[in-house]
Write a structure and sequence with these properties.
The complex is a heterodimer of chains A (201) and B (208). Chain A is α+β, with helices and mostly antiparallel strands. Chain A has helices at 8-16, 21-33, 35-54, 64-71; strands spanning 102-103, 107-110, 113-119, 127-133, 143-144, 148-159, 162-165, 169-172, 181-193, 197-198. In chain A, strands 1, 2, 3, 4, 6, 7, 8 and 9 form an eight-stranded antiparallel beta sheet that branches. The longest helix of chain A is centred in the N-terminal third of the chain and has 20 residues, at 35-54. In chain B, 41% of the residues are buried. At the A-B interface, helix 1, helix 2, helix 3 and helix 4 of A face strand 2, helix 2, helix 3, helix 4 and helix 5 of B. Bound molecules: zinc ion. Zinc ion binds at residues 2, 5, 30, 34, 36-37 of chain A.
């Protein structure tokens, strides 16, 4: 049962297309597992459609339709090739949102803590990673230069703001300083960080 | 208006490849008629149906892109790409998942994002619409009447909250734009957006 969803204004920004790429990817991963938010996002897209219809039409160049017609028979460019999924622990299936990303190998980051960099060819500046925390392991206290979105893929974690299980999305802003702790099954999550981590030293 | 007898269009092919579309006494198509036009493009590559979709949506998509900060030339170009995508993706259109305007909006939004990336020599992200998506019971129920109810709810929204919603969708930097337009401190914008959305939701739920 999913308990934690993206904030309403986050889903709005996602639907409007103004959410930065890293956070948008994490929200998409959440949506793919959350029928509730899928319905919310569909309503917001419909709101975008309704607003589109209220705009004062702006005339196109006289030859715009002809130029579009001339392209109708050109075949669409092929879709980008998909990376063969890397084997993941616990038989974990990665969210479809990660298609087209380049997922690195698991690297050691600290005791009981591994990460794997997720690169977005369409947004090289995005700081996205898979994090894997051993059962009951505490991550050191940190705050963020900006927002941190975390989608739990396996297991769970908790911090002062609540318990997060598989399917939940945690939004932390730049004001939150927290010390997440993995649950008894450990935790694998997809995280997008803006502005990097701020460690207490 | 019935879907099949919908708009009547004449194609007047000039000496060049230019095609002029003339509409004869057809009212603007409603949601169901627009959905039927997309279905005709999908099932029969119907260019008359496509012409009607172009006539209705292209000038609105261009207006949207202009509001998002694209130059007139770029907006013109990207609008044509959006309409080309409408033609190519018509068979992905499922009226049980999205209404016509909602579907075109999503294509235009993605084209806007892709355009910004192209400006930086970056590739486009994979199209999430190509991922299999099963409509939930909730979306199925909603889609039929959603567009009409949304238009009513938008009309009933206070001018300030309507502006918040509009800027959220149309501005490239919505928070800054909302703060400036309504003369609000930037820190309060998030809660104002949340309030506006809650109000809209109330109106949607109250709608008959
Ligand atoms: Zn959700």
């Amino acid at each position: 049962m999913i308990q934690h969803h993206p904030a309403p204004e986050t889903l709005l920004a996602y639907s409007a297309g103004t959410l930065p790429a890293g956070r948008a990817l994490v929200v998409m991963a959440h949506l793919q597992g959350c029928p509730h938010c899928q319905a919310e996002a569909a309503t917001l897209d419909a709101l975008g459609g309704a607003l589109l219809e209220t705009l004062t039409p702006e005339p196109l160049a006289p030859d715009a339709f002809a130029r579009t017609l001339a392209q109708l028979d050109t075949p669409a460019p092929p879709a980008p090739r998909r990376q063969t999924p890397l084997p993941q622990p616990f038989g974990l299936t990665l969210p479809a949102a990660l298609h087209g990303t380049r997922i690195g190998r698991w690297l050691w980051l600290g005791r009981g803590l591994r990460y794997s960099r997720v690169r977005l060819p369409w947004a090289p500046e995005a700081n996205v990673m898979l994090l894997r925390v051993a059962p009951n392991r505490r991550v050191i206290t940190h705050s963020h230069g900006g927002a941190e979105f975390t989608q739990v893929l396996h297991g769970g974690f908790y911090d002062a703001t609540g318990h997060y299980e598989a399917g939940d999305l945690a939004e932390a802003d730049e004001h939150l300083s927290h010390q997440p702790c993995a649950g008894p099954q450990g935790c694998i999550c997809l995280a997008a960080l803006e502005g990097g981590l701020r460690l207490p030293w | 208006m019935n879907a099949t007898d919908a708009p009547l269009y004449f194609f007047l092919a000039a000496t060049t490849r230019a095609v002029v579309v003339t509409e004869v006494n057809a009212p603007p198509p409603n949601g169901a008629a627009l959905a039927a036009l997309i279905a005709r493009v999908a099932s029969a590559q119907d260019r008359t149906a496509f012409a009607a979709l172009f006539k209705y949506f292209a000038p609105r998509v261009k207006a949207y892109l202009r509001r998002a900060g694209l130059t007139p030339a770029a907006a013109e170009e990207v609008t044509q790409q959006v309409m080309l995508a409408v033609w190519r993706k018509a068979d992905h259109f499922d009226p049980a998942i999205a209404g016509a305007a909602s579907w075109v909006f999503a294509i235009a939004r993605n084209a806007r994002i892709d355009h910004a990336r192209r400006q930086r020599d970056l590739p486009a992200a994979p199209d999430p619409a190509e991922e299999p998506q099963a409509p939930s019971a909730e979306t199925l129920l909603l889609t039929a009447e959603r567009a009409t109810r949304l238009h009513k709810a938008l009309a009933a929204l206070g001018p300030e909250q309507r502006q918040i919603v509009q800027l959220s969708f149309f501005s490239d930097t919505p928070h800054t734009a909302i703060a400036r337009a309504l003369n609000l401190p930037l820190g309060t914008v998030k809660s104002r957006i949340r309030l506006g959305l809650a109000k809209l939701r109330d109106l949607l739920e109250d709608a008959p």
